[in-house]
What does this fold into?
Amino acid sequence: MGENWIFKGDKMTSRERVDSLLAGKTVDHVGLFLFARGFCAKSTGISLEDFYTDPEKSLESQIWVAQMYGQDENPKFGFASSAVWDFGGEIRMPSGDFDQTPIVVRYPVESEEDISKLEMPDFKTAGMIPLNMEFCRLQEKAGLVRTMSLGAPFMYASCVWS
It folds into this structure.
């Protein structure tokens, strides 16, 4: 894996292209940034449940798709409502033909009384957090920039209370 996964464009590697773009410099062509988790899983034949719960399969899937299509974005792990799971709510992994992401079954806070019971997640065991940390370790091992998808306070608030 390592640097080999990065698409070699006309002049720049993906990393050079993104660094130049962020620095306001000229790039050799428009970068490709897919937000296509389900597409990655489908393209590589893994289930969406594995994509969201197995960091190694998820990373391998995204690297394969990046190589195939010349994607410039660093692989990412997680899903928009992962804080529901982190804070003790319940999710259902995608299983139907039209499911593309985990689905909220029960929010951690369902009544005003539940607010006082809410606790900070244990980073070693809570929902998506340990999987995200493993994904970061795998990114580093592959020579990639480590990234963890974290949301803003209002995103967390929307994931805690239905």
In short: The longest strand covers residues 103-106. The CA atoms of residues 19 and 25 lie 9 Å apart.
